[in-house]
Structures are given as C-alpha cells and as structure tokens.
Amino acid sequence: SPTGRAAKRLSEATGRQASTVHRLLHFDPQTGAFAHDAKNPLACDLLVVDEMSMLDVVIAHHLFKAIGPGTRVVLVGDPDQLPSVAPGNVLVDLIASQRVSTFRLTQIHRQGRGSLIVANAHRVLAGQAPEFPGRGDLSADFYFFSADEPRRCAERVVEVVTERIPRSFGFDWTTSVQVLAPMYKGECGVDALNERLRAALGGKTEEFRLGARSWRAGDRVIHTRNDYEKEVFNGDMGRIVSIDEEGLQVRFPERTVAYTPEELGDLQPAFAITVHRSQGSEYDVVVIPLVAQHFLMLQRNLLYTAMTRARKLLVLVGSERALQLAIDNAEPAARVSGLARRLKPGSSAPA
Q1: pLDDT tens digits along 240-298
Q2: Where are the chain's structural domains?
Q3: Domains 4-107+334-343 and 116-328 agree in fold
Q4: Coil, helix or strand for 11?
Q5: pLDDT at 346 exceeding the cut of 70
Q6: CA 77, CA 278: separation in Å to the nearest integer?
Q7: Which listed CATH number (1.10.1090.10, 3.30.470.20, 3.40.50.300, 3.30.10.20) goes with 116-328?
Q8: Given this model, what pLDDT does residue 222 score?
Q9: Is residue 102 within 8 Å of 95, Cβ to Cβ?
Q10: From CA 87, how far away is CA 338, in angstroms rounded?
Q11: Mean pLDDT of 166-189
Q12: Burial class of residue 85 in the structure, from the number of CB atoms within 10 Å of its CB (0-12 exposed, 13-18 middle, 19+ buried)
C-alpha cells in the first residue's frame, strides 16, 4: 500500500503481512535509491497493491520497474477518489489506456443494502444531490444540518459532534467521531475546528507547550509519518494519556508510545483532519463541514472521498450552495502525465 496506515489495515483484513511500497522496495533515505529495481526484482509470484489511487507516478514507476517477468500484479483502488498528493493519476491513466484488464466491484460490504451513505455516494458520483431522511427520523445513517455562514457552521459542527450524535446515536465523540474538512484555514478549517473541539472537551488538565504547540492529556492526535522503530504509521490516531516537560505518551489502539519534545513534529491535533489526510482510513462516524469559503477545494471527488470514509453514520453540516458546488465541480485540474497515451496500442513512446 502507499501508506503505512493502509498497509496496516490490509494486514488486519487479510491476516497476511503487508507493507508500504517504500518498505517493500527497501528505500534508502540516505541515497534516495531503492534496493529492488529492474536488476534486482521482487521475488514474488503475486503482488497485490491496495489503495492504488494514492500512488503517484514516481513511486509507481519504481514499483513497476521492480516487478519481475514471472510476477502477476493485482491493483486495487477507487478511481473516483482523490488522486495522489504527489504528481500523476496512475490508476485512472491505467484504466484509460485500456491495456490493463479492469473489473469494477459493485457489491458493498461495509454498509447494509439500505444505507443512505452508499446510495448518496453513488448519487454524488452521478452529479445528483443526496437524499436525506425525514425530520425526526433517527433510523438513517446520513443527515444534513443547514448552516450558511462559516461561523454558524463551525458552531453547529461542535454541537453535532459533542451533543447531538452522542445523545441520539450513542457514539462517544472523543473516540468514534471524525471531522473531515476540505482545508486547514478558515473558521470551518481543520485548525479552527480542532481548537473549538478541544475547548469542548473541557476538563482542568494542565497544558504544556512542547515544540510549536500546546498539548494536554485527552487531546486526540494523528501521527504523520511512518516510524518503523516505534511501529507507528502515517495516519495512526491516538490520545495523549500523560504529559510533562520531558515529553508525552500517546495511546494508540495497539500500544502506548512515548514522544520527546524533539519528536512532536510527527504529531498533529486530530479531532478534525483534512479529507486528503483521511485517505486510506475509515471511521465509525464522519462529520463534514461544507462552506462556500472553501470553494477552491469543493470538488466532487473530494466530497465522495470524505463520504466513503464513514462506516456507520455520516453528517454534512453547512450550506446547500456549498454542497451543490462540490457536486457540480466534476473536473478538477487535469493531471497530464502522458501515461495513458504511452500505454495505448500503437504508441511508440516508452511507458
């Protein structure tokens, strides 16, 4: 998988060892080179790459170079999700080339057949507005709360997360609810929402300023790079359980990990995170703020990616105008790598 978090999820789902592409190819950070390449290919009969939409063109190039002539390859991914953060749109290009056998899986196993999360994700992909349950209906898994102004939207996100969802559905918001915002900045951005949700947590825990931020016990945090020594990966979430001037300890689902002040650059607040940061993960409950202030990022594939992170409950908070902007914007900036053209039959250019 492209990320450590996705690799860990794949291991959990299959019961087999999985790794990041970098670790599989034995990346050397000192030289920037990979131990496995065309001269030293991977020794495997079958290679399965999950979350393929997140793989950029440079890493895909190194991976494909390291595949030997006797290895079969299965690429798994959703071409409708956000493309990789780095250049390229490899999965979409491979499908468009018509040189790779492609199968589309249509049966959903994450939610039940009557799920509005599933139905509305498909509606958004088709350019249609979502359908919402009737007023007072608490049996559905998809809801919309109207809030036209950014400040009101931010206030309502906090209300929905900390009061309505726990009261109506029984979820502990400090562990089961994830806010996914399009951007870091603005009143409904990741930074401001983290401050609001942190304040809503309350308590009298002492704050410590370590590194560039203030931290306190109870804060939810996300680890932002793969650390194989600590066995913590990019996208792993935990809660600070103890803190003093010498560092802090974070409880992750599998273990508790200590961080010195010098290592805190690997952590970010995580009551709210960006949609891009959520790729490769899923959560019981997802809340998405949508305001016109974020118009530069309101795209159909971003909304679809955010919606499909939810397992049990999805709540949109914001303006209908912003929601419609995201649905209508089906043509984000084109990524022209030339890969699809090079792979098409008759092309003389090397892929």
Answers
A1: 999 988 889 999 988 899 999 999 999 999 999 999 999 888 999 999 999 998 888 89
A2: 4-107+334-343, 116-328
A3: yes
A4: helix
A5: no
A6: 15
A7: 3.40.50.300
A8: 95
A9: yes
A10: 12
A11: 95
A12: exposed
> With contact defined as beta carbons under 8 Å apart, do 322 and 148 qualify?
no
What per-residue confidence (pLDDT) applies to 315?
Answer: 98
φ, ψ of residue 314 to 5 degrees: the values are -130, 130
pLDDT at residue 130, rounded to an integer: 96
The CATH fold of domain 4-107+334-343: Rossmann fold (3.40.50)
pTM listed for this prediction = 0.87
Residues 194-206: pLDDT tens digits? 999 999 987 667 7
Residue count of the chain = 351
pLDDT band of residue 227 (cuts 50, 70, 90) is: confident
**Long-range contacts from 331-339, C-beta under 8 angstroms, 24+ separation:** 332/299, 332/301, 335/83, 335/87, 335/88, 335/89, 337/57, 337/87, 337/88, 337/89, 337/90, 337/93, 339/57, 339/88, 339/90, 339/93, 339/94, 339/97
CA distances from 7 to 50, 65, 139, 277, 292 (A): 8, 21, 34, 15, 35
Look at residues 59, 60, 74, 69 and name the one whose alpha carbon lies nearest to residue 38: 69
* Cα radius of gyration (the chain): 21
In the chain, which residue ranges form alpha helices assigned H by DSSP? 4-14, 21-24, 57-65, 90-97, 116-125, 150-159, 165-169, 173-176, 190-201, 275-278, 300-307, 320-328, 339-343
Q: Are 35 and 1 in contact (CB under 8 A)?
A: no
Judge whether residue 345 has pLDDT over 70.
no
